[in-house]
Design brief:
The protein has 146 residues and is an alpha+beta fold. The protein contains two helices and eight strands.
């Protein structure tokens, strides 16, 4: 019994160290909203993508497993991203990724009108991105108008 414990202890320690490094690497991802890529505007099915710049400063590539984000303009929810497609972020690189946005067109028009009326030029992105099995909280501004 003691011999099995002696044999397993280094493997358990290495596994714990690996998970800690991955957790720290995932937390060190730099995620910056760049803007929106509007492919098609229509009343019932607009095609819009959120463009994020993601910088991985870690020693190894990191996989974004999912994203669950909500967008607010003038305090009103205007859309969501629920992404489950895996995206690989290479080590020591910055890449741009595009996440699909499901918009509530009526809510978006009302919120944008309110935002312009209030002089607000940005939307709020709130949610989480799951990278390497760890949830990264997102609470950032997205510029809407230049």
């Amino acid at each position: 019994m003691k011999r099995a414990a002696l044999i397993l202890t280094p493997f358990i320690a290495l596994g714990a160290a690996y998970l800690m490094r991955k957790a720290n690497a995932a937390k060190d991802l730099l995620i910056t909203p760049v803007g929106l890529d509007i492919r098609k505007l229509s009343l019932f099915s607009p095609t819009v993508f959120l463009v994020l710049e993601v910088t991985n400063t870690a020693f190894a590539s990191i996989t974004i497993n999912s994203a669950n984000l909500e967008y607010f303009a003038a305090g009103q929810s205007v859309g969501r991203t629920v992404q489950h497609e895996k995206i690989e972020i290479p080590s020591n690189q910055t890449i741009q990724i595009k996440l699909p946005v499901k918009l509530s067109l009526a809510g978006t028009i009302t919120a944008l009108y309110s935002a312009i009326k209030q002089g607000k030029r940005s939307a709020q992105i709130v949610g989480t991105i799951n990278a390497a099995g760890f949830k990264i909280p997102i609470n950032q501004e997205l510029p809407l108008l230049s």
